[in-house]
Amino acid sequence: MNLLEAAADVRLRAYAPYSRFKVGAALRATSGAVHVGCNVENVAYPEGTCAEAGAIAAMIASGDTRIAEVFVIADSPAPVPPCGGCRQKIAEFADLDVKVTLCTTEGLQKVMTVAELLPGLFTAAHMDRT
Ligand code: THU
């Protein structure tokens, strides 16, 4: 399945009545399966969830645990970057060289690696005292 098309398709189902900014995310797990997510807002604003978080939740619920590739799309003037929290969420399940393609609905794309998105990332090794 084409990840760009999957992200664009799920974006249309985003629930974003407050920001009116719909985001779609599609990721391919290392199994080859594609998982998608969209942002789901809430009247209690901090309770809203990002598209990337939704795709990751779908991946974990399906039994996959590793990300091979990610696409994120929004109707933004420049390719939409994942928020800080989503960068950390992606890094939990992806190697540093995994590509994250940031897209606009008008066709602009920017490819970044997980390492570029989150330099100096916090890892489990930072909790290791031995
Ligand atoms: N949003 C995402 O879903 N992913 C991103 O990478 C950036 C922001 C959502 C959260 C909120 O519903 C809306 O976009 C505006 O911030």
CATH topology: Cytidine Deaminase, domain 2
Order of helices and strands: HEEHEHEEH
Number of discrete domains: 1
Helix tally equals: 4
CATH architecture designation: 3-Layer(aba) Sandwich
Number of strands: 5
Q: How much helicity do the residues have?
A: 25-40%
* Oligomeric state of shown chains: single chain
Explained architecture:
- It contains four helices and five strands, in the order H-E-E-H-E-H-E-E-H.
- By secondary structure, it is of the alpha+beta class.
- The protein has one domain (3-127): Cytidine Deaminase, domain 2.
- A five-stranded mixed beta sheet has the order 2-1-3-4-5.
- Helix 3 links the parallel strand 3 (67-74) and strand 4.
- The chain is globular, with a radius of gyration of 14 Å.
- The chain starts with a helix and ends in a 13-residue tail after the last helix.
- The mean pLDDT is 96.
- The chain binds tetrahydrodeoxyuridine.
- Tetrahydrodeoxyuridine binds next to helix 2.
List the helices and strands and how they pair.
Blueprint: H1 3-11, E1 23-29, E2 34-38, H2 51-62, E3 67-74, H3 84-93, E4 94-104, E5 109-113, H4 114-117
Parallel strand pairs: 3-4
Antiparallel strand pairs: 1-2, 1-3, 4-5
The structure holds tetrahydrodeoxyuridine (THU).
Tetrahydrodeoxyuridine (THU) binds at residues 16, 19, 21, 23, 39, 41, 48, 50-52, 72, 80, 82-83, 86.
